[in-house]
Amino acid sequence: MYPLLLLPFLLLFPLGCFPVSLPLCRNSCGRIHIDYPFAIDDGCGSPLYRNMFNCSTTFASTSNTSTSTSTATATATATDLFFQTPSGSYKVETIDYASKSLTIYDPSMSTCTILQPHHDFLMSDLQFAIIPPSPDTIFALLNCSLDSPILNHYKSLCFDNYHSCDDLYASCTSFKIFQMLSNNTPPCCFTSYTTLKFMSINILDCTHYTSFYDADKLNKPLDWSYGIKLSYGLADTGCDGCRRSGGTCGFDVETQGLLCICSPTLNSTRECGAGTTDAGGRGGDGKRLVVPFLRLITTIAIATAFALL
Ligand SMILES: *[C@@H]1O[C@H](CO)[C@@H](O)[C@H](O)[C@H]1NC(C)=O
Ligand SMILES: *[C@@H]1O[C@H](CO)[C@@H](O)[C@H](O)[C@H]1NC(C)=O
Ligand SMILES: *[C@@H]1O[C@H](CO)[C@@H](O)[C@H](O)[C@H]1NC(C)=O
Ligand SMILES: *[C@@H]1O[C@H](CO)[C@@H](O)[C@H](O)[C@H]1NC(C)=O
Question: What's a Gene Ontology MF term here (predicted)?
Answer without folding.
Answer: kinase activity
